[in-house]
Amino acid sequence: MNISYTESKQLKTKLSEENLGFGKNTTDYMFIMDYNDKQGWYDPKIVPYSPIPLDPSTCVLHYGQGVFEGLKAYKSKDGRILLFRPDENIKRLNRSCDRTCIPALDEADVLEAIKKIVILEKDWIPTAEGTSLYIRPFIIATDPFLGVHPSHTYMFMIILGPVGNYYPTGLNPVKIFVEDEYVRAVAGGMGTSKTMGNYAASLKAQDKAEKAGCIQVLWLDGVHRKYVEEVGSMNVFFKIDGKVITPALSGSILPGITRVSSMAILRNRGYEVEERPLSIDEIINAYEKGLLEESFGTGTAAVISPIGELLYQGKNYVINNSEIGTITSMLYDTLTGIQFGRLEDKFGWTYEVK
Ligand SMILES: *Cc1c(COP(=O)(O)O)cnc(C)c1O
User: Fold this and answer.
1) DSSP H or E stretch at residue 218
2) Interatomic CA distance for residues 237 and 246, integer angstroms
3) How far apart are CA 113 and CA 166, in angstroms?
4) Which residues have CB under 8 Å from 30's CB, separation 6+?
5) Whose CA is nearest to atom 12 of ligand 1?
6) Which residues contact 213 (CB under 8 A, 6 or more apart)?
7) Among 47, 198, 226, 268, which one is most buried in terms of CB atoms within 10 A?
8) Pocket around ligand 1: residues whose beta carbon is below 6 Å from it?
9) What's the distance, Cα to Cα, between the start and end of the chain in Å?
10) Does residue 156 lie in a domain region?
11) 290 and 215: one domain?
């Protein structure tokens, strides 16, 4: 792939690495590649970061035909630039494309595009504890056409931004609202894909959770409002009576890369991990018997997020005294240790960008 490059005339001022927050800042460049039916994916380029002109009738603006990914570049103490399982993000991007009638991308080309722009922007990778460079690949349908139909033209872009903690509270246990009215996805819908519309569907419940003093929503299944699915933009785990349980991928849950990686680490350390339907009643029952030991969410943005409290039907359930549990902190330390190149990577998950 021959990526053209246009130099930026004016670079942005780099930010202080304290209080970077999440998603507020972008770097100097972006990657763009276009698609049409004749040429396939064509004209890959790296250009100065800027707004993109879109016709007001552009498909994605009306019907949400668009998908995205999220991964991070980490700088190790000895200056190496590491990605974490980027091949998994790229495969998932193509699965999301398939679900939304977007033409697949060549996996090697996507990896090359990520590598090229990360290297170009390497000075933007922060090094303070817990910081990294967030990478956001995404695809939008660009036909200027108001009929409901898969687009014939698309734009694939990659933008980057330095990030700190996803939650302002850092690695502190969060309070979660168990949502039993709105749903995020149903089996057969788009819940297993990283599509833009899934997030539009989630906002109302998120707003409700925040008004109730919670930071995220714990979604229940769309049919029975009974089985737990995910927490906001994270997969979810519960430790009950010594066993670690995470909801099985039922067709409405996003298959997180942090989720499978956490399961592999836990199993490698001898923990019993169950992937199965897990009802909210089972969790409340375990709580009442004193058997609900820990809970946490997993995802690229927050890595591991301890859950200190559930709010369900007006009642509060405090987990592990609202303190970070043993496996929660073990997983955080192990995952970030591998991601930042501090620990031996015996799973072969890190990918060095050179
Ligand atoms: C991206 C995402 C996750 C987490 O996936 P990772 O690959 O671990 O980052 C979980 N749930 C939803 C809904 C997501 O969009």
Assistant:
1) strand 216-220
2) 5
3) 25
4) 46, 47, 48, 49, 50, 117, 157, 158, 159, 160
5) 233
6) 175, 311
7) 198
8) 70, 194, 230, 233-235, 254, 256-259, 298-300
9) 17
10) yes
11) yes
Taking only the tens place, the pLDDT of each residue in 185-240 is 999 999 999 999 999 999 999 999 999 999 999 999 999 999 999 998 899 999 99
CB 205 within 8 A of CB 293: no
As a whole number of angstroms, the distance between CA 227 and CA 52 comes to: 41
Q: CATH number for the domain including 226?
A: 3.20.10.10
Asked if the structure places residue 347 within a domain, the reply is: no
Chain mean pLDDT for the chain: 96
Q: Residue 354 domain-assigned?
A: no
Do 181 and 324 share a structural domain?
yes
Query: Residue with the nearest Cα to atom 10 of ligand 1?
Result: 234
Q: Report which ligand 1 atom has the smallest distance to the Cα of 92.
A: 7
Structural domain harbouring 292: 174-339
Which CATH number does the domain housing residue 106 bear? 3.30.470.10
Asked whether the predicted pLDDT for residue 270 surpasses 90, the reply is yes
Q: Give the distance (Å) from ligand 1 centre to CA of residue 130.
A: 19
Task: Look at residue 244 in the predicted model and tell me its pLDDT.
Answer: 98
Q: Which atom of ligand 1 is nearest to the CA of 258?
A: 8
The rounded percent of the chain whose pLDDT value lies above 70 is 99
Residue 168: the pLDDT is: 64
Q: What is the pLDDT of residue 122?
A: 97
Q: What value does the mean pLDDT take over residues 37-61?
A: 98
Task: Convert the pLDDT of each residue in 93-129 to its tens digit.
Answer: 999 999 999 999 999 999 999 999 999 999 999 998 8
Contacts of 75 by beta carbon, 8 Å cutoff, 6+ apart: 81, 82, 122, 125, 126, 127, 132, 340
Distance of CA 302 to the CA centre of its chain: 8
Domain boundary among 163, 194, 226: 163
**Å from CA of 299 to ligand 1 middle:** 5
* Separation of alpha carbons 43 and 2, rounded Å: 8
Is there a single domain that holds both residue 82 and residue 188?
Answer: no
Per-residue pLDDT for 28 more than 70?
yes
Residue 106 placed within a domain = yes
- Domain count along the chain: 2
